[in-house]
Design a protein that fits this description.
The complex is a heterodimer of chains A (about 300) and B (about 120). By secondary structure, chain A is mostly helical. Chain A is about 70% helix and about 0% strand. Chain A has two domains: about 90 residues, no CATH class; about 210 residues, no CATH class. A two-stranded antiparallel sheet of chain A has the order 1-2. Chain A is elongated, with a radius of gyration of 26 Å. Chain B contains four helices and three strands. The chains are: A mainly alpha (about 300), B mainly alpha (about 120). At the A-B interface, helix 3 and helix 5 of A face helix 2 and helix 3 of B.
Chain lengths: ~300, ~120
């Protein structure tokens, strides 16, 4: 810790050093916030450098401390702004319920629940798409590498993966409430194309994004199945007493008992269990949403830290 | 950072920070509202740097505000590659942004006038 402090006090000499210090100063902050802050700083520093062609990188970076801010100051500003934006843009949190009953049924009043539910249905479609994209892209471009045309294809494919990862990030943030980056990572400049291709293969982020997209297919199928099964089961259990209405032909068969014929007095009980099952499912949906959000954060963002 | 800032200095800096937090969105909207063509972050920062006072503070504070204004639909943005450096994100004010700018300008003028009126008695 102490050695890091002394390291931080040395003014940065180059853009990578500045960014390094900025990400150190932001240690512990939300990784998505770190990515946005690094993107903004890099855009500013590179513009400043481009505006002043006569001066060296170290001089420009030194002058930036008074205009854009030193890394620690920038880190403070971003932390501050994040808190303000969070409180301003988030929907007001429902009042915390203290009773056990309130907590159990309160899940129906939480907008996150429904967003997660919808995400679970949607993930079947996005999962199939990601999986197909990755498998097709990888197999076509890798097999064509021997005849060289695969190399540009592979670069395009990796570019598309970055874009898709950003899009999925927006979906996850909007529907699951996990803060995700709004800006992509800068690719390192000043490296030739061979080095850049090398970077793509050594970048842990590339591989974790690919893994995420492959895993989305089985996960999407599981999410969709859980969602549809639980919803249809609980809703039809709730509707069970309708079988008593004359003219409606509903069969309620459970455990070998024909409820409307043999035990009509149990139908309200079935309905009540259906209600409990519905709310328990809502809890499950919300929990799956949270879990998936943190997984997406891990595979799509965490590995991207400059560390 | 040679000497520790004294108490009144800290108070002043805190006051300036609060002032700029309240007015920086208005200033950004105004800069983009008067611009003929879309501007990118660095240009906007340099435009505000020319001004004295609280808005000439650290320019890193502008980027998150630009993003928020854009998320609120007051600004449109797009990315363009540039010849001399990295790709730039250009911002342009939207119709909703112009309406907001008018409302905020009126609110700002009213606030400024009333603060001025109160201050009149203090410093002759």
């Amino acid at each position: 810790m102490n050695s890091m402090r002394t390291n931080n006090n040395r003014p940065p000499q180059s853009i990578p050093e500045y960014l390094e210090q900025l990400s150190q100063a932001l240690a512990g902050a939300d990784p998505a916030l770190v990515q946005d802050a690094l993107y903004d700083a890099e855009e500013y520093l590179r513009s400043e450098l481009a505006e002043q062609p006569g001066r060296s990188e170290a001089e420009v970076i030194a002058s930036v401390a008074s205009s854009y801010g030193a890394p620690e100051e920038v880190a403070d500003i971003y932390r501050d702004t994040e808190v303000k934006v969070q409180t301003a843009l988030r929907p007001p949190a429902p009042p915390p319920r203290t009773s056990l009953l309130g907590r159990f049924f309160g899940v129906a009043a939480d907008p996150r629940t429904y967003a997660s539910m919808f995400y679970m249905v949607l993930s079947l479609a996005t999962g199939i798409f990601y999986f197909t994209w990755v498998v097709t892209g990888l197999s076509v471009s890798l097999s064509l590498v021997v005849v060289l045309i695969g190399i540009p294809l592979l670069i395009l494919f990796f570019g598309s993966i970055r874009l898709l990862s950003l899009v999925e990030g927006r979906l996850v943030e909007v529907m699951l409430g996990e803060r995700m980056p709004r800006r992509p990572l800068y690719s390192a400049r000043g490296r030739n194309w061979l080095q850049r291709i090398g970077d793509m293969f050594t970048d842990a982020r590339t591989w974790s994004t690919l893994l995420y997209m492959l895993v989305m297919l089985p996960l999407g199928v599981v999410y969709f199945t859980i969602n549809v099964t639980l919803l249809s089961l609980s809703l039809s259990m709730i509707a069970a007493p309708l079988a008593l209405f004359p003219g409606l032909h509903l069969n309620v068969w459970m455990f070998g008992i024909d409820f409307p014929q043999q035990a009509p007095y149990l139908l309200p009980l079935v309905s009540a269990i259906g209600v409990l099952l519905l709310f328990a499912s809502l809890h499950l949906f919300r929990a799956i949403g949270r879990m998936h959000g943190s997984m997406a954060k891990h595979l799509l963002v965490k590995t991207a830290q400059y560390s | 950072m040679a000497e520790a800032p004294d108490d009144s200095d800290l108070q002043l800096r805190k006051f300036q920070k609060e002032l700029s937090a309240g007015t920086v969105s208005l200033a950004l909207l105004a800069v983009l509202g008067s611009a003929d063509e879309p501007m990118y972050g660095y240009q906007i920062a340099k435009r505000l740097e020319l001004l004295d006072g609280v808005l000439s503070g650290k320019q890193s504070a502008l980027y998150p505000v630009l993003r928020n204004l854009s998320a609120a639909g007051m600004l449109d943005s797009h990315v363009e590659p540039s010849v001399s450096g990295p790709p730039r994100r250009y911002y342009r004010i939207t119709e909703a942004g112009r309406t907001t700018l008018q409302q905020w300008t009126a609110a700002w003028r009213a606030t400024r006038d009333s603060v001025d009126a109160v201050l009149e008695g203090v410093c002759q």
